[in-house]
């Protein structure tokens, strides 16, 4: 799986406005709702699913990264969204550090395989400290998207 299979340039938020975990999830749910088909497009349902997942344990994986994810009933395909907060957001991350890079993943209820492959791909890309630093410095969704594509094409 390549990052271009799950992330599109219009689904990049170069600067999140929210300053806390719930606000970020609300903001990204609102942003994502425009790209999700059918009845699942309701912001409150997306946010509720993401918050329910956070109740199981924070998706703040450390190093300034969070990968909130949820299964959404009626969703026809996997949808991803990337958001950035240069200031950082308290996210209950495992290393207790603020989160600056947030990659939200919404998946159909019955797609465990694709879900796990996408999480693995995102984790691999964001493992690089140099790449994380680059993402924080770039201006605009287009530059961020191109950086993801370049990083994803490296062996």
Summarize the topology.
Blueprint (H helix, E strand, L loop, with lengths): L11 E2 L7 H13 L9 H14 L3 E3 L2 E2 L2 E4 L6 E11 L9 E10 L3 H15 L2 H9 L3 H12 L3
Parallel strand pairs: 1-5, 3-6, 4-6
Antiparallel strand pairs: 2-3, 5-6
Helix pairs in contact: 1-2
In short:
The chain has 155 residues and is an alpha/beta fold. The chain contains 5 helices and 6 strands.
Note down, in words, how this protein is organized.
- With 155 residues, this protein is α/β, with parallel strands linked by helices.
- The chain has one domain (3-152): 3-Layer(aba) Sandwich (Mannitol-specific EII, Chain A), CATH 3.40.930.
- Helices cover 41% and strands 21% of the residues.
- It has 5 helices and 6 strands; from the N terminus they run E-H-H-E-E-E-E-E-H-H-H.
- It has helices spanning 21-33, 43-56, 112-126, 129-137, 141-152; strands at 12-13, 60-62, 65-66, 69-72, 79-89, 99-108.
- Strands 1, 2, 3, 4, 5 and 6 form a 6-stranded mixed β-sheet that branches.
- A hairpin with a 2-residue loop joins strand 2 (60-62) and strand 3.
- Helix 1 packs across helix 2.
- The longest helix has 15 residues, at 112-126.
- The protein is globular and about 35 Å long.
């Amino acid at each position: 799986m390549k990052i271009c299979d799950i992330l599109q340039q219009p689904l990049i938020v170069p600067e999140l406005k929210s300053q806390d975990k719930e606000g970020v999830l609300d903001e990204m749910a609102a942003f994502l709702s425009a790209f999700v088909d059918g009845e699942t497009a309701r912001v409150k349902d997306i946010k509720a699913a993401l918050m329910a997942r956070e109740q199981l344990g924070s998706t703040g994986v450390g190093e300034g990264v969070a990968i909130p994810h949820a299964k959404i009933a009626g969703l026809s395909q996997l949808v991803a969204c990337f958001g950035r907060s240069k200031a950082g957001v308290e996210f209950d991350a495992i290393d207790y550090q603020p989160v600056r890079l947030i990659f939200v993943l919404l998946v159909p209820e019955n797609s465990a395989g694709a879900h796990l492959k996408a999480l693995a791909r995102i984790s691999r890309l964001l493992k690089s400290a140099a790449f994380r630093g680059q993402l924080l410095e770039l201006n605009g969704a287009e530059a961020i998207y191109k950086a993801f594509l370049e990083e994803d094409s490296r062996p």
